[in-house]
Structure formats: C-alpha cells, structure tokens
Description:
The complex is a heterodimer. By secondary structure, chain A is an alpha/beta fold. Chain A has 2 domains: 11-188, P-loop containing nucleotide triphosphate hydrolases (Rossmann fold, 3-Layer(aba) Sandwich); 190-230. Chain A is built from 7 helices and 6 strands. Chain A starts with 10 loop residues before the first strand and ends with a helix. Chain B is an alpha+beta fold. Chain B has a 7-stranded mixed beta sheet, with helices on both faces. Chain B has a 6-stranded mixed beta sheet with strand order 12-13-14-10-11-21, sandwiched between helices. In chain B, a hairpin with a 2-residue loop joins β18 and β19. The two termini of chain B are 49 Å apart. At the A-B interface, α1, β2 and α7 of A face α8, α11, α12, α13 and β12 of B. Guanosine-5'-diphosphate binds at residues 20-26, 38, 40, 42-43, 132-133, 135-136, 170-172 of chain A. Magnesium ion binds at residues 24-25, 42-43, 69, 71 of chain A. Chain B: Residues 33-106 are annotated as: Disordered. Chain B: Keywords: Autophagy, Endosome, Lyase, Membrane, Protein transport, Transport, Vacuole. Chain B: Belongs to the MON1/SAND family. Chain B: InterPro entries: FUZ/MON1/HPS1_longin_1, FUZ/MON1/HPS1_longin_2, FUZ/MON1/HPS1_longin_3, Mon1.
Amino acid sequence: MENDIDIPPPSYKIVLLGDSSVGKTCLVHRFITNKFDQNTANTIGAAFITKKYTSANKPDRQLKFEIWDTAGQERYRSLTPMYYRNAKVALVCFDMNNFETTFKTAKFWIEQIELNGATDASDPIEIRLVGNKMDLFDKPQPEDLTEEQQNRAKDQKQETNNTITFHRTSAKDGSGVTEVFDSIIDNLDDDFFKFYFDKKRAELEAGRDGDQLSNILGSRLQNTATSRCC
Amino acid sequence: MSELSPSPSRNGETSNHIKYNVSFSSTSKLAVPSIANPTLPTGEPTTAINLENAGPSESSFILEEDDHHLQVVSTSRHSVASDSSYPGSGGQDSEYEEEDGNNVNSSHIEEEALQNMLSDLIRSNRSYVNVRDNSLPLRELSFLDLNIFPNTHEAKNELEFYEKHIQIQKDNDEPAFHQKLKHFFILSTAGKPIFSMHGSDDLIMGYMGIITTIVCTFEESMKEDFKSIMVGDKTKIVVLNKSPLLLVAISQISYELMSSNTDSTSSNKEDKESDSDDILLINQLNTLYKYLLAILSKPTIEKNFHNRMNYDLRKVLTPLDFQNLEALCMKLTYGLPLLNQGESISDTESFDFFIGELMDSSIQSVKVTNTTRMKLNNILLSCKRLKLRDDDSALNRSSETASLIFNRTTKEAEKYLGDDLLFSFLLASSNKILNYMKPKNHSLSNEDMKLLFSMISAAEYQNRGGSFDEDLWIPLCLPNFNPNGFLYVFVKKISLSSYLQSSTVDQYLTIVLVSSNKNTFFQMRELSRFIINKIVKREQFLTTLTDELTGSTKLSILNDIKVPAIKHFIYKLKETNQFIMNDMVHFNNDRSMNTLLQLVYFYSILHNSRATRIKSKLKSTYNQQQGSNFVNPINTYKIDNKKLTYVKWQGAGSIVTGFMLSDNSFEFYCLSNEEIDSKELISSSLKIIRWCEKYRKRLFLGGGVVF
Ligand SMILES: Nc1nc2c(ncn2[C@@H]2O[C@H](COP(=O)(O)OP(=O)(O)O)[C@@H](O)[C@H]2O)c(=O)[nH]1
Ligand SMILES: [Mg+2]
C-alpha cells in the first residue's frame, strides 16, 4: 500500500497497566530511546508519550503510538478509565520473577478492562500480557517456568473475550521489546491502513487538513483577536 | 549571641577536628563577643559578628535588650551631618574618613551611614578578632574547616564525612545509624513507623520504641502542635503533632541548633521564644507533612486512620513516595540532592530548594526583560480565550484520542478549551518561575507552589534531557489551596533549542497547567501545544527568550556592575516572597558538595542571626531630604527597620565574609571569600541592591497575571 508523505501516520493508543515496579516505565523508555536507566524514577500519575514507529517487518506500515504509562498504585485508580478509554492495546505487565503477586494484579487489570471495554464489543481492547525482567529469570528450567506462566496466561484467555497474546521482555537488555510493538503493527488488518488513508485523502481533497494544528490554532486565534478588541 | 555560642562539648570536638585540619587552628581563636551572654566560652571556630555583638563601651551604639534581641540604636554620631569623623578611628581605618559628609544624594547618605555603622561595629570587635596570618596564602576552604557538624568520628576528607554522617543509609548497621547527623521519622500516633530517613525497617522498629517513649513523655502536652527537647547540649528533638501522624526531627547540626542554647542567662525565656528557636525544624517537618497531604489529601489520611488506629499508611505509599521523602530530607537539611554512589551534583535544584525554604518559602524567580515576560503572560492569558467551537470538526478529527472528549465537551456546551484551567506556570528548569497565571478569586501560596515544583522536578527526572515527547498528568492535593481535594497537573517540558536552527546552549521550559477536572488531560494538552506554538512560531522571539534564559541562569550581574569581591548573593523581595540569586558556581568556581555545604552553612548563619534592628536618626535626616526629588527607587528605603548582620569566618589561609541587610521591602545576603573591607562590602552590597531595585520588573514576576 502506498503511504502519502503528506498524511501523518494513524494514531494508535496503547496503555500500560500492571503492578508498580514491574518495569512499565523502563519498557516504554527502552522502546522510545533504546536506553535503560537503572535509576528511573517511579511514575507519578501518568505519562503520555508519543512516537512514530515503523514496523521492522513491514516497513510500509507506520503508526503514531500514543502511549499511556500509568502508575499502578491504588490511589491513582480513579484515573485509569481515562487512560484505557479509546485504547487499542493494553500492555498488561507483570514481573516474571515476582510472578504470583504481579500476575494477580495483571489479572485485576484484565478484569477491569473487561468491565469497561465490554460496552464496545465491536472494537475491544487487544490485551497483551507482558512478562518483564526476563534477564533476571534464572530459574533452573526457565523454559518450563515460562511455559507455566504462559499456560496461566492462556487460562486467563479463556475467561475473556479479548484476544490475549503473551510476550517476554527485558527492558534492561532490550530483548523482546521492539518485538511487542512490531507485532502490534504487523497484526493490524490491511484495511485499517486503507480505511485511514482513504479517509485522509478524501479530507485533503475536500480542502481540509485535519492535522495541521497551526491552521486550527490560527483560526482559533483570529477568533480571539477579534473578541479581544472590545 | 546565645545562638552563636558554642557548647563546651563542641569545643572539645573542635580540637579533635584540628588534628585533621592543621591549617585551621587559628580560626578557633575567633571569639563571639558575648555581651548578652558573658558566660559563654569563646572558641567557636566560626564567628558571627553582627550588631548584636557590638560592645557598648567605646562604640557609638546603644544596645537595648528587647525581645531577647539586642537592638542597636545609633546615636547622632551616625547621622549624616556629623559623620565626618569618628571617635576612635585609627589610622588603619582612614578609608572610612575620606568622605566629607556633604551628601546631597540620599543613597550616599545611606551608604555612609551603613558604612559607619559597620566599621564601628567591626572596630568595636577588633579586640576579639584574630587577625589573619597574612603570610599564608588563601587556600581552598573545606566545609570540614567550618565545624558545621561535630566531626566526632574523625573523617579524613569531605567524601568520607558525607558517607558516614550525611548520606542516606537504609541498612541494618546500627552504629552507622547513630552516626548520622540528622534523622527524620514519620509515625502514626499509635506508634507505627511510616517513614525514616535512615535505617532499615528492622532497625527502625527498635528505634520506634525510643521515639514513642519520647512522644509518651509529652502525652499530656500533645494537644500542643509540637514539642522540642534538647538531649545534652548538642542534640535537638522536635516532634510535630499532626494527629493521626507524628513527625520527628533529630538534629545535631550546628546551624540547625543555632538558637537552642536556652539555658543559663536567658532563664526568663518564654515559650514563644523557644517557638522561634524551633521554627527551622518545625518548618522542615511541616514540609514533609505537606508532601503526604499533597499525594494523599487530608481526608484520605484521616479516613484510613479513622477506621483503624493501627492502620499502616505505608500500604498506600509508593517507592517513589519514599524516595521523594528522602530527597526532601536531604534538600531540607543540607541542600543536597539524592546522589547515587559516585554521582556528583548535576544541578542546583536541591540547593535552590534549600535557599527558598530558608528564606521562608520563597520562590525563585527568573530574570527576563519585561517585554518578554509580558509576551509570555499574554500567551498564557490567550489560553483562557481559546474557543472550543461547535464546528471544530478539524480538531475533532485531528486527534482520534481527543475526539471523544471534545465531542463530549461540546455536547455539554462547554465553550472554552481552558474552562477548567485554574493556574498556569511557565518554569525555567522546573523550579524557577517565569510566569504565573491565576484566577481572580484564587491564588496559590508559595508553599503550595514549592510543593508543586518539587513534585514536577521529581517527575521530570526520567526525562531530564527533554529527549522525548512526554506529557505528565499528576493528581495532586495542594494543601493550602484545598487540603480536601485534588487538582490535576499537566506538565510538559520543552527544549527551546530543538526549535532553533543554531543554538549553543539548551534551555528548557516547563509548561504547567493546573486543572480542576480530572478528565481534561487532552484539553490541557491542546493548550500546551498552543502555548508551544506561540512561543516557537517567531524565531526572533524564541532566540531572545533562549538568550535571556541563558543570561538569567548565569546572572552575570557580579561582573556587570563591578563588585568583584562579592561572589554570591541572594536578593529577596518581601512583598511577593520571591528571590533571585546567582549561580553557586561563582562562589568557588564549582558546584561541588563542598561548596554547596559551605553556602548552606553561611547562609543559614546569616539568615538565622538576623536579629539586629537599626533604629537610626537617619530617618529624620532622610525626611529633610524628601523635598528634593529622588529618582532612584533605592531612595525610598525607610532607614528604620533596616537590619544588618555581618559575619566573618576566618582561618589560616581562608576568609569568608557574610553580610545581610534588610528592611521592610527586601532582604539581601552576600558572601565574599576575598579580603574585603567594610567600605567595599557596603558599597558593593548597595550597588547590587540598587541594581535589583532598578531591574525589579525583570527580576520578579510580581503577583502573576489574573484572568
Ligand atoms: N533487571 C531488570 N530490571 C528492570 C527491568 N525493567 C525494569 N527494571 C527495574 O525495575 C524497577 C521498576 O521499574 P519501573 O519501570 O519504574 O516500573 P513501573 O513501576 O512498572 O513503571 C526499576 O528499578 C528498574 O530498574 C528489566 O527488564 N530487568
Ligand atoms: Mg512507572
């Protein structure tokens, strides 16, 4: 499919959920900057991060990821619906080395999404379970254990209508991180892009450029300028 | 004065200390002239000579005891008319005599009067002051030389001292725990530990017993807000009662205990007086308490404890909260940031915070031209006028994520994008305030602002370079504004240079939009994009702004107005409680921990000994002059209510002079680490003060713009 240079890539909203300290912020930073900072500060409230990203496997596909990195704490929970409202993907993260506790919280978040997302069955949030800190995972038979985790994740899948994919990552050494985002793009329907670009092109032909913020703000300002003189 | 007097035991430590700082020995001879407290030993290595210490005998000051502070009332000899000669001025002071008293300009009058007072003061103390051994070259001062802290464990160098006595240590090492100079604890009234600056949980559990015992001994009086006790004469414990929380500070730091020698002479000391003695530590505890309020809000804390007195508040605190509390402890006490092993100080945020706190919750302002500030103000103001038009389909479509919210809001007939915007700020490097916009009927206290900025710099930590596009959304309770509810803070840090073709220095601007509605993130984001667009749209304005911010952080005033001997200064405008200061790098040419701790110490002493009031006959002289037209705003000073403090630290090879001058409108503090005579000190200080007055509009943003 052809991508018009004039047309910005479609936005795609992702929310990261999960217990605090499982590595959500580090995962996002690894994805954005390809760096790992041991001393990353914990998240207060939430951070909204955007990045244009082209799939490593399908170079003709680009998305503008709009990522909500949330603080998992209870006291911020009243805000979370706002974060996953409109989200296409939820990366529900847990710590592979602290499985029981953090997986329980992960399940909690999946339930929450179900409760809230059930209203819009036509466009459910795609859930991806992310087991992070793989680099620390030095159990005797790692394959067995991750398999067990994977099975638990699959169990979870049966209980839900949303699709659940399982990922293993390490924000520290970087393994598996871009793969998560590549897979998000790769899994999209061709129709998704086709629909988007058709719509944009139609808009352009109609002489509207929906993404030119300056145009909008310009016209807004003219408004204010006229209202100011009195 | 009593607050500057050393305790005998501390003297003992001084001698220990000298072992490691041989060149330091002559310093300890410096004496506190003890007028009010003649029993005090004279051996404090640091000497504060402020007007309180002026001996009455041959001096032309009359000392009166008032409120336990000595007031200095100058006699007519200090009036301008007769200032040409000084009784007792010797040849070596001839520099003070060259003026002839024929002053037509009131700033000259003032300058001379102040000079006279100061030189008298110094002269009257001459017998106490050890003359520096001039054969020794000036050498670099170490904070260890200053005996800021009891160096009982004989640290060999600054780093070792820091690691032993200052650095936060959270392990089980009990002896190490006891070597720390400062402790903070937060516990529930039921005695459950919530936070401790040092020590592991296990270790604290044991220690809590002692704390609760102390608390229990006050049980009767715990209806009071706080309680303070001295353990021996070098440890102070202050407990702040914010039921259901108790906050405890334990300090062994000399500049925090300055006014704590409450025994002996001042037996008639009233409670009120000891209140002010403890104010420093109480303020620190209040700051920690306000942090808890900010993240939890008052009802949350109370509700949790109401259900169960035994409630463990730690359950709702995050690792970040503990880290922030630790950072606060370090900033409040030492002006130091939390440093990882081997890390050096990378910015001055923690020092700025300390100074702001010391200056009674003062907010640091950024110098820009009035035109620039007005332009930025107007940008903020226009945020409030941005209409959310019904036919705003372009915007609706522009961002899929925003569309839903915008559709919703238009349905609710919301007309303006910034309807829920309460306060907005533009900050330079996340803690210095450039612009402030507020509604007519509300404003934020300086305390709330400091809390907010402190939170923002903690949150921005992870994106320090502003290297990626990130917007923060932080729910926060601003306790002075409303202890019961949350506000929602949108934070966006932008790098100005990323919008410029050619730029050498990078300057960051932080946009802070405080909303009353938790669902308005995308509106605030839209507003921030509008603000950014307005700022970066015109390259000329952007360049000007970047240059001005760069100049402001350098604050090269000390070169501009030729006061080479003054290395560091703080000017605080009392009306709005805002201050400016130059970069600490100017003091010692570095931003090391050593320099930072020295500044913390010097300014603490200068600030905490601000007890002297000058009542001068100059006032009448000055009034007579009123007839002539004074153009310079400096002339509008009221001479009475001026206060002046002069401190000199002198040791073999190094000398530091501190000077404080204040009146109803400002406080001025400065430090020199060169030989500087009183005349130069006064005239340089007045030069800076006049400069600050002249550029007041550039230096300070006033009360903010109102929408
Ligand atoms: N070894 C290892 N540590 C990690 C990894 N990801 C994060 N961490 C550490 O886990 C802690 C919490 O990470 P953070 O991203 O703040 O977690 P969040 O609360 O989920 O955002 C930090 O100390 C990180 O250094 C990882 O992949 N491997
Ligand atoms: Mg995080």
